[in-house]
Design brief:
The protein has helices at about 10-25, 25-45, 60-70, 80-85, 85-100, 105-115, 120-130, 150-180, 185-200, 220-230, 235-245, 255-275, 290-305, 320-330, 345-360, 370-400, 405-415, 430-445, 445-455, and strands at about 365, 370. It is mainly α.
Length: about 475
């Protein structure tokens, strides 16, 4: 009697199954792993002689820092990004910020959707956890900004909006660069470069002159602000606006909180910078009222995580640096190209404080009730972020001779992937560079994702301990 031969499973097939099981079981750890692999790959590529204009091997510290800054869409640099890298190196930069800005799991889901023309449940869950880390937790209901059934539409929005917005802003920047006298081929490349860096909230510059020729240009700076704004509000918001732009009543609570909080912070930040730098001749002091307003708005928007700057930040007043620290730490919207603890996190904390002041047991906003687990998650995000910033700042203060306000500014800029700098990063020693690189990585991966990765499995407790209230406040 002949027996049927056992089916053989190829080694690549087994590896693929293991990766698929790991990705769907612990998407947070999978995202961290993929980010780390991408950093290593880009570090190797930036180390190649072909990546530099001098055709020399890039030192490890500079290659690693650049790779982390690119993949984490930060914008900080230890070398002159415009002149140090060759055309091949700049191509790597543009590719890296596109991958980092869109998100690793989201990009993988988009590629799967293009190849198979369908999106399975596992892919939907993985993409959803990339856009909303709270989905990593078990038992989360579907009262979400984007429902699980809409993930396919969200992925399409991510791909299309990124492409359309970047091309549109590049086309609007191009004529201004031609008027400035930039050669046509260079203008095409540089306008697209600026557009990509604005939408991904990175802030790298394509040439040594940087923003100097356009420092007072309303059109050019306005387009950069628009790109940063669209990138920082988040893809779920863009998706919701694309469906119900003229019907605000249909906007989800997340969309309303994101837009309202973002606009409030933008205006308050601009007012603060306008007033604090009013008499500073090294920044806004010598400008007329119109330029002061423009520059204050521009800098306030760049603290969302934009990274562009028309002034020497090291010349700003200490009070202005502190305001910028706070705005950078908050960052942009969830599931966006921006960093920070996110504007909705701040909104939740304020709503909780208002509810407590009114004696209300529930948090409410725009006729919706917000569950208490969202508050716990928000508090965790802030504490994790503050711990990372404090730890990095203490270490840098020990290994550098820089003042606290400069160290704190660059550390928060690294954590919030902002890219603004007082100049400390560029002149840092290798140990300080590694500390800032680690800060960027932890900031971009996300405090929620890090926490979920460390506690991927939830433990069910079958008993409750006796209750006792400590004194608070």
């Amino acid at each position: 009697m002949r027996t049927k031969p056992l089916a053989r499973v190829s080694i690549p097939g087994r590896i693929r199954d293991l990766i698929d099981a790991f990705a769907t079981a612990t998407p947070a750890r999978f995202a961290i792993l993929i980010f780390a692999i991408l950093v290593l790959v880009f570090t190797l590529l930036f180390s190649l002689p072909i990546s530099t204009t001098s055709r020399e091997v890039t030192p490890l510290a500079d290659a690693l820092f650049t790779a982390v800054s690119v993949i984490c869409v930060t914008g900080l640099a230890t070398v002159d990004m415009a002149t140090y890298w060759s055309p091949f190196g700049h191509g790597l930069i543009v590719l890296g910020v596109q991958i980092g800005g869109i998100g690793v799991l989201t990009l993988a889901s988009i590629l799967g959707l293009v190849i198979s023309r369908r999106l399975g449940l596992k892919a939907r869950l993985m993409a959803a956890s990339d856009g909303n880390p709270s989905r990593i937790q078990k038992g989360v209901s579907e009262g979400q900004a984007v429902h699980l059934g809409e993930i396919g539409g969200l992925l399409a929005t991510v791909a299309i909006s990124a492409l359309v917005i970047e091309i549109a802003i590049a086309l609007l920047i191009l004529p201004r660069m031609l008027i400035e006298g930039v050669a046509f081929n260079d203008a095409i490349w540089e306008s697209f470069y600026y557009s990509v860096m604005a939408f991904t909230n990175t802030g790298f510059l394509p040439d040594a002159a940087g923003l100097t020729p356009y420092a007072g240009d309303v059109w050019f700076l306005g387009l950069l602000m628009l790109g940063v704004f669209l990138g920082s509000i988040g893809f779920p918001v863009i998706y919701a606006l694309s469906k119900n732009l003229r019907k605000p009543k249909r906007w989800s609570l997340h969309v309303k909180l994101t837009i309202v909080t973002t606009m409030i912070l933008l205006v308050l930040g601009a007012i603060a910078f306008f007033g604090l730098e009013f008499n500073n001749p090294k920044t806004f002091g010598g400008m007329d009222a119109g330029q002061r307003t423009l520059q204050a708005l521009f800098f306030s928007m760049m603290t969302r995580s934009g990274g562009f700057s028309t002034i020497d930040i090291s010349e700003m007043n200490g009070a202005s640096l502190l305001v910028a620290d706070m705005l950078m730490f908050i960052g942009g919207g969830s599931a966006s190209t921006a960093g920070g603890i996110k504007v909705t996190t701040l909104a939740i904390l304020f709503l909780a404080a208002f509810a407590e002041a009114r004696g209300s047991a529930e948090m409410e906003a725009f006729d919706r009730r917000i569950p208490s687990d969202v508050l716990r998650l928000s508090v965790s995000v802030v504490l994790w972020g503050a711990t990372i910033v404090a730890t990095s700042s203490i270490i840098l203060l020990q290994i550098t001779d820089e003042p606290l306000d400069y160290v704190l500014f660059d550390v928060i800029s690294a954590f919030a992937t902002s890219g603004l700098t007082t100049g400390l990063t560029a002149k840092s020693s290798d140990p300080a560079i590694y500390v800032l690189a680690a800060t960027m990585f932890m900031g971009r991966v996300g405090t929620v994702t890090l926490a979920a990765a460390l506690a991927a499995s939830t433990r069910r407790q079958l008993f409750r301990r006796a209750e006792e209230r400590p004194i608070v406040g």
